Amino acid sequence: MRLSLALKAVAVLDIVVLGAVWLIAPATGLGDDPDSRSLLVARALGTDLVVIGIMNWIISRRDTASMRPFLLPNIVMHVVPAAIIVTLILDGTFGAADWLGAGLHIAPAVVLTWYLASPTKRRAARSEAHA
């Protein structure tokens, strides 16, 4: 898969699966009786995820060298919630059903980390020229 396709897939995940759910149905995942502040934070988070997804979609249309600087912020954006969710599952605060939420953050983090760690064609060409 090309990096542009990976960023588009992450964009769709951020917009539809994560962002829109929190924006449209903010009580999702907040328990039985969320207070108004929690709903506000969930909607704000949903808005942020939709905007990040739109930015990823726009960035995905650029050349690979222009896309690479956006990988690390995207990775961090998914690793932090994944780490929090996994920690809360392991300490018993969250239930086993919350592994889905962790997975929705771990998967894009792993894919984007692979792209960040893999050398670009330009770097590989330079290495061959110097060998």
From TrEMBL:
Q: Which domain of life is it from?
A: Bacteria
Keywords (A to Z) from UniProt:
Membrane, Transmembrane, Transmembrane helix
Ranges annotated as spanning the membrane: 5-25, 40-59, 71-90, 96-117
Kindly provide the name given to this protein in its UniProt entry. Answer: Uncharacterized protein
Please report the organism this UniProt entry assigns to the protein: Micromonospora luteifusca
Cite the source lineage.
Bacteria, Bacillati, Actinomycetota, Actinomycetes, Micromonosporales
